[in-house]
Design goal:
Blueprint: H1 17-23, E1 25-29, E2 35-37, E3 42-44, H2 46-54, E4 59-63, H3 71-83
Parallel strand pairs: 1-4
Antiparallel strand pairs: 1-2, 2-3
């Protein structure tokens, strides 16, 4: 169902497709783990990619050698140190855009709560 003013191209609160395409960064992952931005024709470091994630910018990563998608691998490598806290030199990261939904919640140390769902 369309929302917003007629003819504006807004569906369920999402920006027009051109805005989404512009915001998504396409990266090539080198054999040494480095990242190269295809559109900007330059190397991107983990800190810059993390800043983009904080701002809600999307990305896709592909291995330069095979073209295989490696987005989740790059995401894990960028978020891992940031989520591990000061011990590893990371900083707290406010997760945006549903990234938090990709991470499992902590396991309950005592197992399931005996008072929930048992009648």
């Amino acid at each position: 169902m369309r929302r917003g003013r007629p003819g504006r191209g807004v569906i369920a609160g999402r920006p027009p497709a051109a805005g989404r395409a512009r915001a998504r960064r396409v990266l090539l992952r080198e054999r040494d783990g480095g990242l190269f931005d295809v559109d900007e024709q330059r190397v991107v470091d983990a800190a810059e990619l993390l800043d983009g994630l904080r701002a809600g910018r999307r990305f896709r990563a592909h291995r330069r050698s095979t073209g295989a998608d490696c987005t989740l691998e790059v995401l894990a490598e960028v978020l891992g140190p940031a989520l591990s806290g000061p011990r590893a030199g990371g900083v707290a990261v406010p997760l945006v855009g549903g990234v938090a939904g990709l991470l499992p919640g902590p396991a309950h140390p005592r197992g399931p709560d005996p008072d929930v769902g048992h009648g």
